[in-house]
Write a structure and sequence with these properties.
five-stranded parallel sheet, 13 helices, 478 residues, alpha/beta, 20 strands, globular, 31% helix, binds flavin-adenine dinucleotide
Length: 478
């Protein structure tokens, strides 16, 4: 049996592809509609137009990745995009006609369906999995069982030990929910990374966390105010109606994501509030039906009201290190999607490349499962060995909500040694608390990287340093 842990785009596409290829598969997931996929908006990047090519898509990805992309992975994913999309379509999924242009892309290449592309793909894949008779079970994986560096099984909260696993595919998403302000769901606290790390898998790039500049939270409901709104004329203003973004970048609302996030955050530190002004967008309800429904749910009128926004943790570039097949450093343990670090994103992710990554690695998995294990290479960085502290008999009582606040304030958009050091002295490499372990590793990596690169910004080291054009790896010290 091949067990797939997680039911986002990576897990479900792998499950469907493996089942169609004749394998026995079971999906175990903490919450079926948890994760980022069901709430993902804009779309999926793939070079299919006549003036585009995988090479141009690769160039854009590498430029945004700011010196840390794994070029082999970038070439692979951008090449395989068309095949992955065609496979999804051959299963019955229909994209809308046309391609959208998004920030960082030099061509129109974002395929979409309504303004809820992730949700549409999620519902389609879930129905397909059910139609194919794939069990999709809600349960939480709490441990991996590894002997002689080979996966033997795992433990779940509800079912205990599962020991008929020939292969295990981690597709558990990222850890953006470990921040007080986030665009993702509570399932995403990095449990897959913690499980893999404790079992002996190597992690990388944990310091790179992408912040989305414009996330709304009305009456407690978090909602990503998509990039396209700004492209269509939405403005960002403070409580005095001033378009302050021009004080930070000549392109104002259309500046790159990381600059916008930093600008809005700095304005908030000065005591201001940030709002999105949607009043200049014509035919709003037709153009943005999902945003419009969100605003209506909270009695907001885009023609009259300013919508309060803030930057929020959105996506994590790092995770369980894998090769282009999704193989980790533990035999028969794969990691795909946001839980993994394939090197596609480097120090910063190009918009709409993550649904693509999840789909390519999921759809292609059947081609690799019979091959001899190759594992990963770590010769492009430095390896740090970390001794895990067995706190099972007295786990920390630090509440998750406090960790999220601490991370937002100290591991967020603007970092420095003092704040990061504060975190690494509060957190520790905990065996029993994945939220603490993952926060510790992310803060430690951010402290070690004494430069600013991609979405990692250090006010005490504001420049990029060529000597840091290398990866930070973590492995467990035995
Ligand atoms: P997820 O979809 O996050 O799924 C993780 C799964 O793991 C969940 O099913 C969860 O229940 C399960 N899980 C977690 N822990 C455990 C455990 N211990 N045991 C069992 N199961 C577990 N990317 C794009 O490319 N284009 C976009 O337009 C886009 N828009 C986005 C909008 C929003 C609001 C957000 C938050 C993200 C967006 N992204 C977008 C990023 C993208 O959605 C994610 O990177 C991608 O969906 C991740 O898919 P995944 O399958 O790896 O993980």
């Amino acid at each position: 049996m091949i067990y797939i842990i997680g039911s986002g785009i990576a897990g479900l596409s792998a499950a469907v592809a493996l089942k169609i290829a004749g394998y026995k598969v079971t999906v175990i997931t903490k919450k079926i509609d948890g994760g980022s996929t069901p709430i993902a908006k804009g779309g999926i990047a793939v070079a299919i137009s006549s003036d585009d090519s995988p090479e141009i898509h690769a160039e854009d990805t590498i430029r945004v990745g700011d010196g840390l992309c794994d070029v082999k992975t970038v070439r692979y994913v951008t090449q395989e995009g068309r095949h992955a999309i065609e496979t999804l379509e051959s299963w019955g999924f229909e994209f809308e006609k046309g391609l959208r242009l998004e920030g960082g892309h030099s061509k129109r290449r974002v395929m979409f369906k309504t303004d809820e592309t992730g949700g549409e793909i999620f519902r389609f894949l879930l129905n397909k999995a059910k139609y194919l008779g794939i069990p999709v079970i809600e349960d939480k994986v709490t441990d991996l069982i590894v002997k002689d560096n080979t996966i033997r099984g795992f433990v779940t909260a509800g079912r205990g030990i599962i020991n008929d696993a020939e292969k295990v595919v981690l597709a558990t998403g990222g850890y953006a929910y470990l921040f007080e302000y986030t665009s993702t769901q509570p399932t995403n606290i990095g449990e897959g990374m913690a499980l893999a790390f404790k079992a002996g898998a190597i992690l990388s790039d944990m310091e790179f966390i992408q912040f989305h500049p414009t996330v709304a939270k009305l009456d407690g409901e978090t909602f990503l105010m998509t990039e396209t709104l700004r492209g269509e004329g939405a403005k960002v203003v403070n409580e005095n109606g001033e378009r302050f973004l021009f004080n930070y970048h000549p392109k104002g609302e259309l500046a790159p994501r990381d600059i916008l996030s930093r600008a809005i955050y700095m304005e908030m530190l000065k005591g201001h509030n940030a709002f999105m002004d949607l009043r200049d967008i014509d035919n709003f309800d037709q153009k943005f039906p999902v945003v419009s429904a969100y605003l209506k749910r909270h009695n907001k009128d885009p023609k009259k009201d300013l919508i309060p926004i803030s930057p929020a943790a959105h996506f994590v570039d790092g995770g369980v290190r894998v090769n282009i097949r999704g193989e980790t450093s533990i035999n028969n343990l794969y990691a795909i999607g946001e839980v993994s670090d394939s090197g596609l994103h480097g120090a910063n992710r190009l918009a709409s490349n993550s649904l693509l990554e999840g789909l390519v690695f999921g759809v292609n998995l059947p081609y690799y499962v019979e091959l001899e294990w190759e594992g990963i290479s770590t010769n492009d960085g430095i390896i740090n060995s970390i001794r895990v502290i067995d706190d099972s008999s007295s786990p920390s009582s630090l509440p998750l909500e406090q960790i999220r606040k601490l991370n937002w304030e100290n591991l967020g958009i603007i970092r420095n040694h003092e704040r990061l050091n504060k975190l690494t002295s509060i957190y520790y490499p905990s065996r029993s608390r994945p939220d603490i372990l993952v926060s510790y590793l992310a803060a430690l990596a951010a402290d070690i990287r004494t430069e600013s690169r991609g979405n990692h910004y250090r006010e005490d080291f504001p420049n990029k340093d060529p000597k840091w054009e290398k990866r930070i790896y973590f492995r467990v010290f035995n």
